[in-house]
Structure formats: C-alpha cells, structure tokens
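Z., the sequence and structure:
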Amino acid sequence: MPPRQHLTRGTLLFVVLIYASVAAIWILLSDKVIEWIFPTPSELILASTFKGWAFIAVTALLLYGMLTKLTREETEAERKIRLEYRPSRVYAGLSLIALVLTAAGLGLTVSRDQEKIADRLKAISYSKSREISDWLGERRGDAELVRRDLRYADLYRRWKQSGDRQAAQRLFASLDVLRTLRGYRTISLHSPSGECLWSSPAQRCPALPARQAFIRRLAEAPRPLSEHFGPYPLDNGAAGLDFLAPLETGGGPRPVVVLSTDSTLWLQTTLSNWPVPSRSGEALLFREEGGQVVFLNKPRHLDTTWSSLRLPVNSPTLLAARLLRGEAHPGEPVTGSDYRGHSVIGVIRNVNGTDWYLVAKMDVPEMYAEALTDGVWVGLAGLLAMFIIALLRQRELLFLAGQTSRSQEERLHAMQLIGEIADSSEDAIFAKDLEGRYLLFNRAASRFVGQPAENVLGKDDRAIFPEHQASMLMELGRQAIAENAIRTREECLSLPDGERIFLATKGPLRDDNGNTIGLFGISRDITERKKAESVLRESEGRFRALVEQSLAGIYIVQNGRLCYANPGFARIFGYEDPNELLEEAELSKLAGLAERNLITDNMERCLREECEDLHFAFTGRRRDGSPIEVEIYGHRADYQGHPAVIGLILDITERKNAERDLASQAAALQQSNAELIRTNQAMIGRELAMVELKLQLNDLSRRLGLPLPYVQAELNAASCAPPEDRHDA
C-alpha cells in the first residue's frame, strides 16, 4: 500500500485557519442569535449550554472531514516530490496560534459578558431610580396639592384667629380622609415653630429636633415649596419619610402639614426585586451626610438595620465614596468595593429631586462566573486543536524516522547536483567559512580569476585579489554575517583580463540547524551592462540637450493635461519657464474659446486609437493675450504605462502672414491678367473686322476686273484666326 500523504505546513495552516474562522464567527454571532430567539433568562441559559455542545460537534466534524481529506493515500510520484522535513517550530507556532486564538476567544467572551453585565446594571439602576423618583413624585404631588388647596389654609386661619372649633374639626377631618385615601402612616399639623398641633391617628408626634428645625426654616421661607424630610429611624426600626406642605395663611410664618409614610416596606420590596437570578446582585440607596456615606435601605448581605450602616466618604475603594469624591461618573460602570469590602462592579445614578443615589451592583467573581460556561467551551475547543496538532507532530516524527536514511542519500545526490548546477552557471558562485576561506568555487569563478578551483579552495581573498580589494571583500563578508542578512551591491575587481564590475549578492550560510557556518555569494559580471548604461546615459543626455534646445515646441499630453513641455514650447506661448506653462495644465487653454473644442476632440480621438497621428493648426493665445498661429503634430504613444500624445508644435505666424500676402498679390495679378485679356480680345476683333472688309474690297475689285488693292495671301492668313477669337470679335 502506498504511504499516506504527509501534511505540509500550508495544509496545517489551512486547517487551523478554517477552525479559527469558524470559531470566531460562532463566538461573534451565536450569542446574538440566541438572545434574539430566547428572551427569558432560563431559556437563554439552556440554549447557551446546547450552543456549546453544538460548537464542539461542528468543529470536531469539520476537523475530521478536513483531516480525512488531507490524509488520503497518494501516489508514489507524489510521495517522491513531497517535502520531507518540517521543523518543530512550525508545530510550536501552530500550537501558539491555537493558544492565542483560544485566549482571544476567552478574552472576547469575558469582554462580551462584562459588557452584557454592565448594560444590565445600567438598565437596572435606571429602572429602579426612575421607579423611586416616580414614587417620590407622587408623594410630593400630594404635599403640593395640600399646599395649594386654599381650603386648608382658610380653615386653619379661622381656627386660630377666631377660635372656630368647627373649622378645626373640618380641617382635621379633611386631612384624615387624605391619609386614608393615600395610605400615609400619619398626617400631622405643625405650628410655624414646629410644635405638633394635631396628628392622625391620634398619637403623640415623635419629637424630632431636626424635623422641627426644618419645619421652622420652611415656615419662614419667603417662597416656600413642599419638601421632604428623611428618611429617619422610627421606634420600630423602620424608615420614616415625611413630605412637608406649608399652608398659605396670608402673611407671617406658616403652619406646616406633615405627610408621614413608612418607606421601609415599599423601598425594600422595590430594591430587593432583582430582574435576573443573581447571588450577589443588589440595589442600595445612599446619600452623603456629615462626611459619611449613609445607606437608606437594609443591605442584602449584612444583618443590620439600615440606619446603622455608615461608612466614611474617604474610603479609598468604596463604590459610593468614589462617586461622591468625583472619581466615577453617574450612569457609567465603575469598580470598587462594597460595604462588605468585596470587589464589585456597579452603576450609580442620582434619584431626581433628591440628594439620594442609587447603586446597582454585583460581585466581580459572579460576573466572571457567568463567562465561565462559554469560556470552558472555548478552552475545550482550543485544547482540541492543540491535541490535533500534537497528533500531527507525532505523525511527522514517525515519518521522519523512517525517511532518515533515504534523506541522507538524496542529500548527497543533491549536493552533487548543486555542484553541477553551480559549475554550469555563468555567474561566479562561491562559499566561505567563518574565517573567509573558500569552501566552494565554481567553474565561472575560476574563469574570472584565471585560477583553477583547486588553487583557491582553502585560501582567502588575499590569495586572489590585490590587498586593498581583498580587505574590502573580507570586510563585506563579515558585515553580511554580522547583520545576518542578504546584501546586494556592486563590486569593482581587478582581474587578469582587466577591471570588471560585478553585482554581488552575499548572505550567511547556515547548516541544517540554522546555525551560521560561513558565507555564500553569487557574483554576476555586469561590466558590459554598465558600459551600455553609460552609453545610454550619454545618449539620453544628448537627446535631452537636443530637446531642451530645440526651437520647435515639444510636448506630452496625457488625460487632456500637459505633462511635459520643453523651453521652445514655452517660448512660443510667451513663457520663460516651462513649469509656469505646466500650471495651465490643459493644452486647450492655450487657444481661444472658439478652438478649444477642436484641440480637445483631436486629442481624445487620437487617445481613443481612432487615429495614429494627428496634424492640425489653430490660433493660440500668448501669455500676454496676443494671438499666435501654431501648427501641431502628434503621435499616440505609451508614457509611464498609460496612453499619451507626444509631438511638436510650430509657430507658423510668419508663414501665415506670408501666405496671406501671396494670396493678395495673386488676386491682384489675376485681375490684371483679366483686363489684358479683355483689351487683347477687343483689338483682335477690330483687326478681324478690317481683314473681312479688305477681303470684301478685293472680292469687289475682282468682280469689277480691277487690280486687287490688298495682298490676298496676307488677308487669307489673317482670316485664319481661332474661331473663338473671331466670335469675340
């Protein structure tokens, strides 16, 4: 059976990258899909568990399918051309990649869960602070209703000023009805000095000096509004909260109605109701009082009353203290410690209309515990990938052990082949040890130096080249080894056939273990090429001088814009520097408005390959605005990899003026010729008429028998004029 295919580095990277891609996409998208499908927390937890199992199943099947395909049986030809060695660092790198991807997945999971918990705490703190604010707003609304209702103030004034007991009873009855309807613990009426005048139900008002002082300040305020006082501890350990409504009695200190409520039950119920299962989730109310953080509700994790829990504001890590010191911002997640000294994360918000703050917090270990489930699955997937890499490495080692002897034989054959290749090369190929002695010297190198390889091997450059060149070559070799890099440079060497220029590439020579054992080099004789380059530079210089000194304007147009113009071009249009002309950019701008389209159309037609050459004339404008007649020639060519028009432009203003003068002279000459022709025709006509008359006289004399008066032969000759002349005559 032929051996199975040996996995190459590329195939292994392919496997790992496919796995990493699937894992990354799974991590990024799966939680979003689950949260969208399963709204309740219990369903979300169950779905997350099944999601982890599905991830393991999918990745395992994917890896199995790829490895099955990659480990198929191969032909003997494929086996022979296969690379036989893969260093351990490849597998170490793959393991490192898998480890990094796993760590990145864990980090992403933890970061995602932290963001989720932070958003949850934001929502809880906002919801509960809004709920408490609304509850306080309702109670303030009751107090404001009492303050604005003039009936209460009128009944109180009638009672106090005229001693109307009936008015007092009506006042007390109205307040008692309000207590019953709104569910207040007590409603009491206080004098401007804070003295309790009446209370419902009938019981002694607790003497609270702080509240009495607060009532006196409120009663004497210029523009009093309803306020709240508290919370404060009651005799039964509950929290009392009062809402004070000053009555408008028409001047002077005002009496105050106090609506007292027991806030403990409602606040504790509201704050202890955590929307999701949590071992440490907790909401607390607090405020600053006398340099201390005073908590306003009973803590969940401490068996104490709410009024006894006070912590100093200067506590360095206390979550509430950090906000009061300005180290944290309301509504943003902040870490610190709670009243137990435990590390927590929380979000703090202000309760509107009060000096209270609400903090929604949970323990940091619980936050990380929520990420543990997803993290375990990610970690297991990473371990699976590293386990597969380890199996592949073991398979590699077994393969290498079986191929060692054959590899050595093939290596010897390869060395011989390399020697033959080196000898067949036209370039000098050599190798040196760390001391600069030659280990390899091919046939081309021997031909260059005029010595056989046997005379050079084991010696350094001083045995071949002059002292200064040998020192230079040995120093360059040491630099290449020290820099551990391949360097290419030109070297001018003195050889038996004269000075030669070589393009030498040198670099460190390494053994199978990657250790530097010497220097290798390849030198190509570029003497003829350098000479050709020198000739080319001279030719280019002559051509450039010819172009720059040409009287004709030479230009290059590309994409409708001037890319090059010689000084002759600039002079034609009145510019001293061609660079000033190039700022105009477009050739058409050098013509009048009427002829710009002509230039643009011709240039575009040439660039579109509708014509190979172009030739036309137009009236241009010099820099000073004067007109100029120019004739333009162009040819489509390739310039810097793109089509362009290259050509020359001639100033034909003088030629055009000469042509106009010649045309004027030709017209005058033609007119003179016409006049001469008409005069000649008139004279010929008269002569013919005379000849005809003389012929008639000769004919008459002949009839009369008289001698002829005129010579008949001359008259006959004269009468032979062209018909058109006789017709004109």
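Residues 1-5, 74-86, 723-729 have pLDDT under 50 and may be disordered. The longest helix spans residues 88-148.

Let me know what you think.
H.
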